[in-house]
Known about the structure:
With 239 residues, this protein is α+β, with helices and mostly antiparallel strands. Helices cover 19% and strands 38% of the residues. The protein is globular, with a radius of gyration of 18 Å. The structure holds 2-acetamido-2-deoxy-beta-D-glucopyranose (2 copies).
Amino acid sequence: MNLRLLAALGALLCVCCSIEEGSAYTFRTFMGAEIATTAISSSALVQRPCECRALCGDGCVAVAIRRQPPRHFHCSFTDKTFADVTTGLTVPALDSRVFYKRLGCLPGFTLVDNVGCIYVSTVALNFTAAAASCPFDSQLFTANFLIDFNAMREYLLRNFSTSRLRFWIGLIRATDSTWQWLGGGTIPTTHPSPYWGQNDPNNPAPSCGGIHFEPGVSYLYHLADAPCATAYKFLCKQI
Ligand SMILES: *[C@@H]1O[C@H](CO)[C@@H](O)[C@H](O)[C@H]1NC(C)=O
Ligand SMILES: *[C@@H]1O[C@H](CO)[C@@H](O)[C@H](O)[C@H]1NC(C)=O
């Protein structure tokens, strides 16, 4: 299949089929990694990262996605299987993420389209305790791309929108002005922002990042910071 056709197919799958819906697998994410050159079996250039994942079809074992300025994403696919994907398949690369296919969600996790397997806690804990309490093989939710973040917001709005609510996610204040996802990657704090609520971040350090539902002030699961010692429910994502 030629590259242009492949890209068109990816876009179609991405829009029409909510990539992970109905498929037997989900993706395990490695931030800051790309597939080793020797293992790459094909590649494509697409408009959105989910198209890369959609194009990782039957024979594909993993896909690496990196931004290709100004507005494309580059996908590298591999069909090679490694016992240890972190050493056998991937090499470190700051601006790239590898999505490695795995079967299904663990018990207690819900498959959220374009996000992965998500666990919603029933208890409220401070940030540190929340991060330590994600079930086995999961971590506080982090967004790989804006499209993942928005897919998560949509899921929360559909399922948890009856009252004011806040969840801890895997976001911390790394320096006075830098907010960082646990596992790598930063997000800007400038406004207008697709991530932050209109008044955030606005807490003195140390503070931690949550995702906040409060329609009265237009927080529709947008980011808000809060003192890390506050107890909130939390969202974990299977790794
Ligand atoms: C979330 O909402 C969808 C429909 O909007 C429903 O199918 C799904 O079961 C809900 N999930 C949870 C965990 O409540
Ligand atoms: C967080 O909660 C744990 C368990 O309840 C407690 O031991 C710890 O001191 C708390 N940490 C902070 C910073 O509040």
